[in-house]
Design a protein that fits this description.
362 residues, five-stranded antiparallel sheet, binds adenosine-5'-triphosphate, binds magnesium ion, ABC-type putrescine transporter activity, cell membrane, transport, Spermidine/putrescine import ATP-binding protein PotA, translocase
Amino acid sequence: MGKPIISFSNVVKRYDDDETILKSVSFDIEEGKFYTLLGPSGCGKTTILRIIAGFSEATEGDVFFEGKRINDIPANQRQVNTVFQDYALFPHMNVFDNVAFGLKIKKMPKKEIETKVKEALRLVQLGGYENREISEMSGGQRQRVAIARAIVNEPKVLLLDEPLSALDLKLRTDMQYELRELQQRLGITFIFVTHDQEEALAMSDEIFVMNKGKIVQSGTPVDIYDEPINHFVADFVGESNIVNGTMIEDNLVEFVGKQFECVDGGMRKNEAVEIVIRPEDLSLTSIENGKLSVRVNTQLFRGVHYEIICYDEQENEWMVHSTRKAVEGSQIGLSFEPEDIHVMRFNESEEDFDARLESYEE
Ligand SMILES: Nc1ncnc2c1ncn2[C@@H]1O[C@H](COP(=O)(O)OP(=O)(O)OP(=O)(O)O)[C@@H](O)[C@H]1O
Ligand SMILES: [Mg+2]
C-alpha cells in the first residue's frame, strides 16, 4: 500500500456519556482511490465524513492527513471538500455564482475564477449552463453543480454523502458511471457514503462495511462479496443463503445433515460455523443429481432471472437465481461447486480473518 492520505487511529465519537457513536475506528485511505463507506442507517457513516471534514471532533483517537495529526485543524484549512446529500446549493444564485462562491471568498482574481469555474462545469458536463438559475435545473443537474462547486477548489479529497439518493433509478445509474469516471479522470481521492450495496459494489476500489459504529470488513468489492467475514456482511452485501454448519476438517464441511467438499480451512476441527451460498451459485437439477433436495415454494420473475424460494428437509430457506423456471410444490435437487460454499466463523476479528485467509491460500 502507498502512503495513506487520511488515517483514523482508534477514533471514538461520543455525544454524551452513554451513547458511543463510533467505537474505535481505524483505517487508512490511500491517495487517488475511490472508497465507499457502506452500512445501514445510523451506523456512523456521516459522522466519519464530518470528522474528516472538520465539522465534528473525535472524542478520542487521532486523525491524520498526509501523516500530520489534524484533530485541531479547523475545517476551512483542510484540503477536503464535501458534497452533501441535499447539495446545499444557494437557490438565489445562478450556476456560475454557486460554483465560484468559494473562489470569490478566497479573493482569487476574476479572470482566474472564470477559467476555473468553466473547467469545473465542463468536467461535470454542464458547459454552457453558467447563467441558469438553480431553480431551473433538474435534480441530476443540481447534483452536478454541487460536485462542480466541490471540485473547483481542487481538494485532495472529495467527500460525498449519499449524493445520489434523491435521484430516480435511471439517473442514479448514469451518475454512478459519471462519478466513477470523473474520479478516475481527476485522480483525486473520493470517499463516498451509501447504504446501497449495489452502488458500493459498482463504484468502489475499496469498501468499508460498517455496522453499529464499527468497520466490520474492508476490502475490494470482489473480496467482500466473495468472502464475507460474517453473517451481517453476507446478509447486507448481496443476497445470501445462510445456514448453520460444522467444519469437520479443512476442506470438509457439514450442513443440512450432509458433508460437502469445500475450499475453506484454518478452523478448529468440528467448529460450529455459518455457511453462505449465493443464489446465483445454486442451480436446479434432478433430485438424483442434486447435493441438496428441496421443495419449491414460490418463484418470481425478476426480468433477468427467476427468483425461486425453496426449503430443505430441515426447513432452511434457499433462494435460487435461475434462468430456468421451476414448478411450485415440486421436489427438486440443488447443485453447487465446492468453491461456492463460503464458510464463516462466529465472531472472527478482521485481523484473524485476513491472517487465516492468507495462510490458508498459500
Ligand atoms: N449531533 C448529534 N447528537 C447526538 N447524536 C447524534 C448527532 N449526530 C448524529 N448522532 C447519532 O449518531 C449516530 C450515527 O449517525 P450518522 O449520521 O453518522 O449515521 P449514518 O450512518 O450517516 O446514517 P444515515 O444512513 O441515516 O445517514 C446516529 O445514532 C445518530 O442519531
Ligand atoms: Mg448519513
